[in-house]
Amino acid sequence: MKPFVQIATRPEDDVAATERAAVLDFTGLQEQDLLWARLDRDPFPDLAMDDISGIILCGSPFTVSDPVDSKNEAQLRAEAEIDRVLDQVIAHDVPFLGACYGIGTLGTHQGALIDRAHGEPLGAVEVTLTEAGREDPLVRAAQLEDTFLGLVGHKEAVHTLPPHATALASGRTAPVQMFRVGTRQYATQFHPELDVPSIIERARAYRDHGYFSPDEMEEIFTELRHVEADQPPRLLRAFAELFAR
Fold first, then answer.
1. Which of 75, 86, 90, 102 has the fewest C-beta atoms lying within 10 Å of its C-beta?
2. Taking 90 as the threshold, does the pLDDT of residue 211 lie above it?
3. Is residue 213 situated within a structural domain?
4. Model confidence over 88-106: pLDDT tens digits?
């Protein structure tokens, strides 16, 4: 099998390692089948697009819609590299699944308006498939129900999709929870790479990054512990199985 590539942009080694472990777990891939590209510090691996099965891009402390002059060197480097990779992804129709930061990067690349109008605090939200979502091959392979709970925590979101993009899922606060461009390029606002214990662990690492009030952290965690959000990770397993070659 040709490997998949996981793109990471988290500067914290422990958080990045936990994220990688989660992607391995939920996709069912072996270490050798999931290359790791930490684009906040290194360029994308020297691979031809025909040498890989697909690309997975997870969350990040970075925010695409921030003013350029407010972004640090690592973010500018990562976003320039991601933009270059997405050029190749679209040109060669490479399977792509971006989560949270991935919806901002793919959306920006494709001409979506990304801003802070539809941010959501840390928590679980109801996600509803659109008619196109119910017919989408990846969604069908993941056997998602028409409405399910997704884990979120984001400052920015899609405000407007470009005409060529297809909305696959919506939410009450963030109207675009999942979309597709091309035939095999996907992005979600919710986190398919996180379950409840892992989003709590992630939130502790980013408690002072503005995703929630630190004073309310333990109360939010208590509410989350009563949540079942087991459907989104099915997308990762389905993505790996559907597009492996």
1. 90
2. no
3. no
4. 999 999 999 999 999 999 9
